UniProtKB/TrEMBL annotation:
PANTHER family: DNA PRIMASE. Binds 1 zinc ion per monomer. Its EC number is 2.7.7.101. The gene is dnaG. GO terms for cellular component: cytoplasm; DNA-directed RNA polymerase complex; primosome complex. It comes from Massilia yuzhufengensis. It catalyses: ssDNA + n NTP = ssDNA/pppN(pN)n-1 hybrid + (n-1) diphosphate. This is DNA primase. Its cofactor is Zn(2+). RNA polymerase that catalyzes the synthesis of short RNA molecules used as primers for DNA polymerase during DNA replication. One of its GO terms (molecular function) is zinc ion binding. InterPro entries: DNA_primase_core_N_sf (IPR037068), DNA_primase_DnaB-bd (IPR019475), DNA_primase_DnaG (IPR006295), DNA_primase_DnaG_DnaB-bd_dom (IPR013173), DNA_primase_Znf_CHC2 (IPR036977), DnaG_bac (IPR030846), DNAG_N (IPR013264), DnaG_primase (IPR050219). It holds the Pfam family DnaB_bind.
Length: 598
């Protein structure tokens, strides 16, 4: 777990204007920067980035957050990856309690990664230049209906014939980074003697594969004729694991948001051709089956994922593997569908023959995951016999066990129960599902705490806006928060503790990021603060001091009113009366001193 102190330090070192500015064109507008929101379609800017708050906020769609939150939402990174990306940019090393690698070894690994990244970038530049001088490759791409514009957008290139063309790119052709990055192959004699090095990719159209940060991490190469293999991928490297990456995801991010869904296809050419034909929201797996990590990445980008497969047996097998990868990620607020084209078509050929509108209709009518699952387990069995129905249940059991106890799982169980002449309760018991949905989905009891208003709300706003002010709240002041009632006081003390833990360098951005990780209770308040001009910390300090003093005064007054009916002895009443009035006098003098001009 990354310490909160590290997150706070990181957010204090990075500049959100620089981070967001990598992806969004920003212009200065008063104290803030403005741009078109990358999270929804808009023609006039409503997206603001505050350098003082280190926070972004969109007045159109309500999106808001810190630099970490922006990378998570925009790039689809996980929290840890976003933190590591920001830390790398400012020269910080993310602490890891489980990291037992010695510092020297860690530094060597980082140097290796940088060397491989540099080699891949140089190779990509070389391949792109070669494409401009390769009429056979240009003719091939034109024959596939691709323009130079779309080829440039995806950074496509060409690896010419010859065994060592990269020798002209890299002065040190024997560098270790070239073989580690998969650009070259070392062939050693059987006796382990002479070693011969040669380029991995030759006479192929080159598709650079990028990670979510846009860095080239590998290549896919397609032959121009009928040679084998038709597609050749970079090998697995420390930078590139096929089961973790998706081709075209970096290029498709904005189009996915605009379309409201992502289309998952089977190959590089599908992605590029569909982008050419008006469907830039397409991505592809990299010559491997869809994995659960692929699905996680896609669901970070959009709530709607549509898998497009060829209608042949290979396409059906790929769809089944995709179904199995999806099941652990299924939730009630996400939609996953499966699109099967006619057997003679892939997406590219379908759109060219029948048109974009026909393909759009196919997407609209794609089969929901629930329907596909039930069809998969029941198609080859005779539901009119007990044995056939038992076989269906046998096949469905591991699939349903892979799902979380969601409402969708309950709907699938009900559908399966209808097919197999059973009841949902019987199937949940028979399948030993982790938790019966009817139990786990019960709504939690409603909380009786009213929504904060007035004095309590303003105090919350100040502590979130300026966490460092929480350091002036001593134990006595915290006790006075009982004035708001037990639940509200506990909530305020919890927020105070989080703010105080950040120390004197605590900021709105740091506390907002921490709150986001533990509760959604403050989301609307954070959004309101982000949308407003930054409040003056000194004015808030004076108001907070005055408010706490008023709370103490009101508490003392209330105790004084009840003192004579408190059941104390006359001597005790007299003593407590003197204590209360002395405290009231002290608070009055503090108030007068604060009002006196200095």
């Amino acid at each position: 777990m990354i310490p909160q102190s590290f997150i706070t330090d990181l957010l204090n070192r990075v500049d959100i204007v620089d981070i967001v500015g990598r992806y969004v064109q920003l212009k200065k507008g008063g104290a803030n920067y403005m741009g078109l929101c990358p999270f929804h379609n808009e023609k006039s800017p409503s997206f603001t980035v505050s350098p003082t708050k280190q926070f972004y906020h969109c007045f159109g769609c309500g999106a808001h957050g810190t630099s970490i939150g922006f990378l998570i939402e925009y790039s689809g990174m996980g929290f840890i990856d976003a933190v590591k990306d920001l830390a790398q940019g400012v020269g910080m090393v993310v602490p890891d309690n489980d990291d037992k690698i010695p510092p020297q070894q860690r530094a060597a690994q980082q140097a290796q990664s940088l060397a491989m990244t540099d080699a891949l970038n140089q190779a990509c530049t070389f391949y792109r230049a070669q494409l401009r001088e390769a009429p056979n490759a240009i003719a091939y791409l034109k024959n596939r209906g691709l323009t130079g514009e779309v080829a440039a957008r995806f950074g496509m290139g060409y690896a010419p014939s010859g065994w060592d063309n990269l020798r002209s790119v890299f002065p040190d052709y024997d560098a270790l980074a070239l073989v580690e990055s998969g650009l070259v192959i070392d062939k050693v004699d059987e006796d382990g003697g002479n070693k011969k090095r040669y380029d991995r990719f030759r006479e192929r159209v080159m598709f650079p594969i990028r990670n979510t940060k846009g860095q080239v991490i590998g290549f896919g190469g397609r032959v121009l004729d009928s040679g084998e293999p038709k597609y050749l991928n970079s090998p697995e490297t420390p930078l590139f694991q096929k089961g973790l990456e998706l081709y075209g995801l970096f290029e498709a991010r904005q189009a996915i948001r605009d379309a409201g869904y992502v289309l998952v296809t089977e190959g590089y050419m599908d992605v590029v051709a569909l982008a050419q034909l008006g469907f830039p929201q397409a991505v592809a797996t990299l010559g491997t089956a869809c994995t659960s990590t692929h699905v996680q990445k896609l669901l970070r980008q959009t709530d709607n994922v549509i898998f497009s497969f060829d209608g042949d047996k290979a396409g059906r097998r790929a769809a089944r593997r995709a179904l199995e990868a999806c099941l652990p990620q299924v939730s009630d607020n996400k939609t996953i569908k499966f699109l099967f084209l006619p057997q003679e078509h892939d997406p590219d050929s379908f759109v060219r023959e029948r048109g974009a509108d026909a393909f759009e209709q196919e997407i609209h009518e794609a089969m929901p995951l629930s329907q596909f699952l039930l069809r998969e387990v029941s198609t080859e069995h005779d539901l009119s016999t007990p044995e056939g129905r038992a076989h269906v249940q046998f096949e469905a059991k591991p699939l349903l066990q892979a799902m979380a106890p969601t409402s969708l799982r309950l709907q699938i169980v009900r559908g399966l129960a209808s097919l197999t002449e059973s009841t949902p309760a019987e199937l949940e018991s028979l399948f030993e599902l982790s938790k019966p949905v009817s139990v786990v989905r019960r709504a939690p009891p409603r909380q009786g705490r009213p929504k904060p208003i007035g004095l309590e709300l303003q105090m919350l706003r100040i502590f979130v806006s300026h966490p460092q002010l929480a350091l002036q709240i001593d134990e006595a002041a915290q006790q006075s928060l009982d004035y708001f009632g037990q639940e509200s006081a506990d909530s305020l003390r919890h927020l105070l503790q989080m703010a105080q833990d950040l120390g004197e360098h605590g900021t709105f951005a740091a506390l907002s990021q921490q709150l986001k990780e533990v509760t959604a209770e403050y989301d609307s308040l954070i959004a309101e603060i982000a949308a407003e001009p930054e409040s003056d910390i000194e004015a808030d300090r004076v108001w907070l001091s005055s408010a706490l003093r008023q709370i103490k005064m009101d508490t003392l007054k209330q105790e004084l009113n009840q003192l004579f009916s408190s059941g104390l002895t006359p001597d005790q009443v007299s003593a407590r009366y003197r204590e209360i009035t002395a405290q009231q006098d002290l608070l009055a003098r503090e108030a007068a001193a604060e009002m006196t001009p200095r």
